[in-house]
Specification:
Helix content: 25-40%
Strand content: 25-35%
Number of helices: 4
CATH superfamily: Histidine kinase-like ATPase, C-terminal domain
Number of domains: 1
Number of strands: 6
Radius of gyration: 15 Å
CATH class: Alpha Beta
Shape: globular
Order of helices and strands: EEHHEEHEEH
Strand order of the largest sheet: 1-2-3-4-6-5
């Protein structure tokens, strides 16, 4: 299921575009998310390098989650598109409800590619990884 929405606020300003994708939590479907990530980042005029970084970051975040996903669970991905920022969250119901370890090589790579990275687990054992990348961040930071 794919949804896209942008709604005006009472002040007339638009809220960021929101795109959600829900698909089976299986590696065979990750190409759909990589393609969506690239297309949405291109829409925000990210550079080719930034687009590739985001594609790899989303893929890595999903791989971290798929390793602990419940059989038959769905992977839910949410893209929030701002003027110069893309925020991505990927979530799945897991067997143990544990957040990914932040002291691994995979987490370090994820942080380097995305800029801002966080994770959380809720009481239903749904684990979410959030990424935020700003356009041009490498040039300014």
């Amino acid at each position: 299921m794919i949804q896209d929405s942008a709604a005006p606020r009472p002040s007339g300003a638009l809220v960021p575009d929101l795109v959600t994708i829900s698909l089976p939590a299986a590696g065979a479907y990750l190409s759909v998310l990589r393609t969506a990530t690239a297309g949405l980042a291109a829409r925000l005029d990210f550079t080719l390098d930034e687009i590739e970084d985001l594609r790899i970051a989303v893929d890595e975040a999903c791989a971290m989650l798929l390793s602990q996903a419940l059989p038959g669970a769905d992977l839910d991905c949410r893209f929030e598109l701002g003027a110069d920022t893309m925020a991505v969250s990927v979530a799945v119901l897991t067997q143990d409800g544990l957040e990914p370890s932040r002291d691994t090589f995979a987490w370090t790579v994820l942080s380097a590619l995305a800029g801002e990275v966080d994770a959380e687990a809720d009481v239903d054992q749904r684990v979410t990884i959030r990424l935020r990348k700003r356009r041009g961040a490498a040039a300014t930071g």
